[in-house]
Design goal:
heterodimer, A: mainly alpha, 2 strands, about 0% strand, B: alpha/beta, Metallo-beta-lactamase, Chain A, 7-stranded mixed β-sheet, 15 strands, about 25% strand, globular, binds fe (ii) ion
């Protein structure tokens, strides 16, 4: 194992410039400043470009996330040379790579979705084609096209990183770039397309009344189960997948799956475990809303509607991704001093508490800064937009800029990489002697679940997040 | 490394327990949360069955339901100004145009141009604002005359909303004789459903004829909206209705919902009637809270005849811009179980929705499509609907 043949992000060693929490605080301030400035320029309904229409800005926000994943995770910064990645100033790198990502983003949305698919495949990807439908205004044509495009993004934001995190880039892990990146890119794009057709096409097809019955399967197959015809039902579990992929990759260190010795068993079990964990999270977050606000009523609007509740599942999941990424990116994945499962548990607890805190802060104060309105259920407001916008900035800061200004980049030596690998292999193990503890833990886990089920209605009655 | 020769340790136990805790919690989340068993933890709401009296009947006259005349123009303005979250007072729509163009206006700059002409010199005010505003001829407005017959047979008149364009609304008032009713003091109060331009900005047209009229507004107005009442020359009582039920007459109450709405408006006030021998009747401006939530709130809070949701009139804010979303199909499907007996809808209900209602067998009262109302699926301008046991 040499630094030259592991991905750049893995070969990197980031060193704090100052002791203690100062680098984390400096970077938090730096990224929040960028967040607010760019929010004002691009998104804010009072600001300059006002992309938060809402769907246009939503679409760009989500696709930026995916392009960043492509650049850093799938293509490993190809076509940029490793030497440049190591030597160039973080700010230069940040600007160049962000510009590249923006170019890819525009090519993809304007060229691929609007231009190619929208003109030669499905009209709903192209605003100009949509306005040919009687009654559809230019505004909603653009919103619909953005909706379709961003639903595709939701799927890609799960599958693209999952191929690296769970599938370990297999079977192309030994190819050179760009062959490796292209192979993974094509396969994940293909899978995303399949999932898109089976989960979102019926949602979009419903636009064409009464022709919907011929262009798509409507009402869709999930209608009875999800209590809605809306594709938000799928957005819910797919957003959970997006979040769980990153929990697995960061605060959970791919454990316990990393302990499985057979590569394909390990890869496939993790790939499907991500889906299983996401479904569990999905159903729980839906249930949590029922416990807090009562059962959903089909056909109602806003916070009582099943389609909004499913969407809110995804929104809530994203609130939890924010503290997990902060812990990983800026707190060196603290703590590291216990055994892996205990570290995971502590980090998960921090993430849960942090997510709850961000959720509460968002609904209490965000409308004062973001140009939005207070309240949970504005049909045109999506907390995922500011959350993912912030996550995008953090990812640019850590992937493209090596955590500048709080950290500086050095590269691991081959010996360091080997030692790290050995330490991980020694630590991340499985032994049948863990079974008694696991049994006790599982009982405690179930008990914890029922404690939360009991507490949710009580807490929701006692706390009102929305200011008077 | 895991070899089975070393003895069982506390460390193994803790590692296992930490992993097990996650597994147990995630397992329970996945297996229990969406299962039939999970239902028993959800609190069932006790119906409050509050008695707000009963009336003999209610009649709604459509003064104007055409809030704007061309969707494309309206949505073009909204698109150019930055979308559905932008503050309505900044659009530079009449009467608050200041000549600076879409998305650059403000209440203060707009009202300064016309304040001296309110409420009596409205033709001049409209002429002035036309030159300063974006697409002034696209403005119409929503207003309805609500006539409530009490159990003694006496009729009480209320105005629900005051539209948008001074010119269009004044013509509509004259067409339906509202101007005289206001001037004679026949109308007991003006009830404003919400702060949206198409329901509220025509306020001076009502005040031109009845500056002392009592007003009911939701208590969620912005400072600009409140200032407009004074700037329009209102001299009467303003009742700011808090979230929840506000009885007006036996069998008539308003209900305020604190919902965030497009164009940065907050809160909507809708009307409930309890009509003798028929049941609940709802009358709404835009119904941004959603008609099923409105019905469900009545079900949880109120007592009404036959325990039956009989009928409704008004805008239902489903597809106001001829837009469509799958969740609107949920509404068309979900409203069925209330078994409504009389539906009069228009304005922001959306023509697609009204047609889907008709296709799905809802008892939609058809209109006459006069005075620029676009389709007979709507109860149109000059039409009326009555809810009263024959
Ligand atoms: Fe309206
Ligand atoms: Fe409205």
């Amino acid at each position: 194992m040499t630094a030259a043949n592991v991905p750049f992000l893995e070969a990197r060693k980031l060193e704090k410039r100052w002791k203690g929490p100062i680098p984390a605080l400096v970077n938090l301030l730096f990224t929040l400043a960028i967040f607010y400035a760019t929010w004002w320029i691009f998104q804010d309904p009072r600001g300059y470009m006002r992309l938060y229409t809402p769907y246009v800005g939503y679409n760009y926000t989500r696709w930026i996330l995916i392009v960043l994943i492509w650049v850093a995770y799938i293509f490993d910064f190809w076509p940029f040379k490793r030497g440049w990645m190591e030597k160039a100033h973080p700010v230069t790198k940040g600007i160049v790579l962000t510009l590249l990502s923006t170019g890819v983003l525009l090519l993809l949305i304007k060229g691929f979705f609007e231009g190619l698919l929208g003109n030669f495949a499905m009209a709903y990807f192209n605003p100009a084609q949509l306005t040919k439908l009687p009654g559809v205004t230019a505004f909603f044509a653009e919103e619909y096209a953005a909706t379709a495009c961003l639903m595709f993004a939701a799927i890609a934001s799960w599958l693209s990183p999952a191929w690296i995190v769970a599938m370990e880039a297999a079977p192309w892990q030994d190819l050179k770039q760009p062959a490796r990146g292209l192979s993974i890119w094509i396969v994940t794009f293909f899978l995303s397309t399949l999932v898109y057709f089976m989960t979102m096409h019926s949602h979009m097809g419903i636009l064409y009344y009464p022709w919907q019955y011929f262009t798509a399967i409507t009402p869709p197959y999930w209608e009875q189960f999800a209590d809605t015809v809306s594709g938000n039902f799928h957005i819910a579990w797919i957003m959970c997948c997006t979040v769980v992929v990153w929990l697995v990759e960061t605060i959970w260190e791919r454990y316990p799956f990393s302990a499985i010795k057979n590569p394909w068993t390990r890869r496939l079990s993790l790939f499907f475990a991500i889906i299983a964990i996401s479904l569990a999270l999905n159903f729980f977050l839906y249930y949590a809303q029922e416990l807090a606000w009562g059962e959903a009523i089909r056909g109602s609007r806003r916070d009582a509607a099943p389609d909004w509740r499913w969407l809110h599942v995804g929104e809530t999941a994203i609130f939890f991704l924010v503290p997990a990424l902060f812990l990983y990116i800026y707190c060196d994945n603290w703590p590291k001093k216990f055994s892996t499962p205990v570290n995971m548990l502590v980090r998960t607890a921090i993430t849960v508490l942090g997510g709850l805190a961000i959720y509460a802060l968002y609904y209490r104060y965000a409308h004062l800064f973001l140009g939005t309105q207070k309240g949970f259920s504005h049909p045109q407001q999506f907390p995922m937009i500011p959350m993912i916008w912030l996550i995008n900035i953090w990812l640019i800061n850590t992937w493209f800029m090596d955590n500048w200004p709080g950290w500086k980049l050095t590269m691991k030596t081959d010996a360091e990489l080997a030692a790290e690998h050995a330490a991980r292999a020694a630590e991340q193990t499985w032994s049948p002697r863990m079974v008694p503890g696991m049994a006790v833990g599982a009982v405690a886990g179930v008990a914890l679940y029922f404690l939360v089920v009991w507490a949710l209605p009580v807490v929701s009655n006692a706390v009102n997040l929305i200011p008077k | 490394m895991s070899d089975n020769k070393t003895p069982f340790t506390r460390r193994d136990f803790i590692k296992g327990a930490a992993l097990g805790l996650g597994l147990g919690a995630i397992g329970a989340m996945g297996l229990y949360s969406y299962s039939p068993m999970s239902r028993k933890h959800i609190s069932q709401v006790q119906r409050k069955l509050a008695d707000f009296g009963v009336c003999r009947g209610v009649k709604c006259k459509v003064i104007s339901e055409t809030s704007w005349f061309d969707n494309g123009t309206l949505m073009g303005d909204i698109k150019a100004a930055g979308g559905l979250l932008v503050d309505q007072y900044t659009y530079n729509w009449p009467p608050f145009g200041d000549g600076t163009g879409l998305g650059k206006g403000s209440y203060d700059k707009g009202i300064a141009k016309i304040k001296h002409l309110l409420p009596h010199r409205l033709e001049e005010a409209w002429e002035l604002t036309k030159g300063l505003s974006v697409h002034p001829d696209n403005a119409g407005g929503f207003a309805a005359l609500v006539e409530v017959e009490d159990m003694d047979g006496k009729v009480h008149k209320y105005l629900l909303d005051s539209g948008w364009s001074y010119k269009w609304m004044d013509e509509a008032f004259k067409r339906e004789g509202i101007d005289k009713m206001l001037a004679n003091g026949e109308i007991e109060a003006l009830i404003i459903s919400h702060e949206h331009f198409d329901h509220y900005w025509g306020l001076p047209v009502t005040l031109k004829y009845a500056p002392n009229i009592k007003m009911y507004i939701p208590d969620t107005f912005y400072p600009s909206g409140l200032q407009y009442i004074a700037d329009s020359g209102h001299k009467g009582e303003v009742i700011k209705v808090k979230k929840g039920l506000r009885p007006i007459l036996p069998g008539m109450a308003t209900y305020v919902f604190d919902v965030p709405i497009i164009c940065k408006v907050f809160g909507e006030q809708s009307l409930y009637f309890n009509v003798a021998d028929l049941g609940l009747v709802s009358v709404t401006g835009c119904c941004h809270q959603g008609i099923i939530l409105f019905a469900d709130t009545a079900y949880k809070e109120l007592k009404y005849e036959n325990d039956k949701f009989h009928g409704l009139y008004g805008g239902l804010h489903i597809s106001p811009f001829d837009d469509w979303d799958p969740k609107y199909d949920d509404l068309v499907i979900g409203l069925k179980k209330w078994e409504l007996e009389k539906v009069g809808c228009n304005h922001c209900t959306g023509l697609v929705t009204a047609k889907k209602f008709i296709d799905n067998g809802y008892p939609v009262v058809r209109g006459t499509a006069r005075f620029r109302t676009k389709d007979t699926a709507y109860l149109g301008n000059g039409d009326s609907i009555q809810f009263k046991k024959a």
